Structures are given as structure tokens and as C-alpha cells.
Amino acid sequence: MISSRLLAQFIAVAEELHFGRAALRLHMSQPPLSQAIQRLEEHIGVALFDRANRTIALTDAGRVFLKEARRLEDQQAQAVAHTRQAAAGLMGTIVLGFVGSVSYGLLPELLTQFRKHHADVAFDLREATSVEQIEDLKARRIDLGIVRLPLGGANDLEMRVIKRERMIAVLPRAHPLAALPAIPLASLAGETFMMFPADRVFSLHAKTLMACQAAGFSPRLGMSAWQMPTMVSLIAAGVGIALLPSQIVNIAHPGVIYRELEDRMEHLELEIALAWRRDDRSRLREAFVDAATAYFGAGT
Fold first, then answer.
1. Ordered structural domains, the chain, with CATH
2. CB of 189 within 8 A of CB of 163?
3. How many other CB atoms sit within 10 Å of the CB of residue 74?
4. Are 245 and 270 in contact (CB under 8 A)?
5. Quick check: 85 and 91 in contact, CB under 8 A?
6. pTM
7. Where would I find the beta strands (DSSP E) of 151-234?
8. Tens digits of residue pLDDT in 161-196
């Protein structure tokens, strides 16, 4: 077994190609260093240095061993770093639930930013509705959930809003209102609305109903779907329109247009939150929540 100290001594001599300079670099005298290198060569059974003409140079075997010595030194440094990270709770796997709508913008952006500083953290990603994530948290099937508010049945969980966005109108490209840069919600009173099913995506279902009622009409309900790409494709086919979270603009579809709504009402404002169990004291979970809060500006 070759000690890490002996590896460091060999690397210093191999890089300096001078025992005196290597000894100074290692803060030791030259004779013990020369003796250490001789013992290393005897242990391996080959000459690592050519000492002809008062100069030294690496032999072919020495060049191979230098490469391996550096690799071993790096592995030792990584082992120490990983051990310290594990002790601090900053290594491992986060089982993360998420609503499908955040996969078009917020989720990949958040994971990319987090992994810049926590490259050794793995994620087990599980798409589910907000209601399903609450059940999964309570059953300890996930560690964290990315959910949409409002949300019932979550009083015994911790929540932190990390992002706010608005609902926008999604219309067929040939729609008469397509030429407008922004649309008054009341102008959609005669349209057929595609809706999220209330039992699966309660927050967006309720928000759509309340926004339309605040604009002075009850929406005429058409087909239901709980996945936004499906809704976009059906809207392109002319089966109706929808109010969807603004992240939907990241789904390019030639058959639809996305338009802002002129109305300024709370029913069109959406909140995305992280949810976790109150008894979860994991440093890894805390690091992720803190990173998300900092990156998105605490829900702005």
C-alpha cells in the first residue's frame, strides 16, 4: 500500500524534476525525500526516474505512474469532499413530485440552477397532480412536491410559495380575436371552454370558473383534460379555448396563439409552491427549498 504522503512526494519530484526544489515545495530536507523515492521504486520494482548526468527525468514507467498518482490523489480528495458533504446532508437523492405544467419552464430551470452547486444530488422525478402529491407526501412516497395553490387537505404540511404567474388565453390560430395583443376576458363569454377536471386539478379548474364569473359570465364547458399538451392540441383542432398558466407559451404549436388577458384580478394570478412534511429535517430538503426561494425571488 502506497501512502498518500509518498504519492505527494513522488508527484512533487516528477513535476519539479529536481530533488532540491521538490523538497522546498514539500517543506522537508532533500535526503529524506531522495530516500523516500528510492523506497517507492523498490516497492514498485521499476525505476521511475533516470538520474544520468546530474539531472533527473521521468522514465516511461515514471510517466505512467505520474498519471496514476494524480488520479489517485484526485480520488482521495473527492472521497474527503463527498464524505464531508454527506455529513452535512448535501448528498443523496431527492424524490420530487411536480405538476406537469411546471415541466415546461420552472422545473428544468430550477434543477439546472440547483445542480450547479450540488452536482452530486440525484433526483427521482414523479409527475402527479397537486392532490396526488399531497397524498404521496403523507405516505412518504416523495420528499418534496411542486404544487399549485389553493390546495385542500394540506394543513399538516409545510408550504412555501416560490413562483407566481398569470393565466393566459389559448385560442385557435384562426380565432377572430387573434389580432389583438391582449384580450378582455369578457370577450370570450360566448366561447366553449376546455377545463381541467376538478377532482384532479382543482386549483386551475376553480381559478377559471371564478375568473369568468368575475368577468360577468359563466363559461360554457366543453371537453375536460388534465394534461396541457393535450388541451393545446385539441384547441388547435377547434374544439374550444382555454385559460392556462403562462408557462404554456414554451409549448410551440402552429395551430394556436397565446394572448395576455387585459383583466387585472386575483383569480387570474397563480401560485406555485413547494410542499414537504413538517417532520422532515433533511439538510438536503432544506437546501433545495432555500435554493428555489432564492432563485425565484421568494415567489415574485
1. 4-87 (1.10.10.10), 92-162+271-295 (3.40.190.10), 165-269 (3.40.190.10)
2. no
3. 10
4. yes
5. yes
6. 0.67
7. 157-172, 182-183, 192-195, 220-224
8. 999 999 999 999 999 999 999 999 999 999 999 999
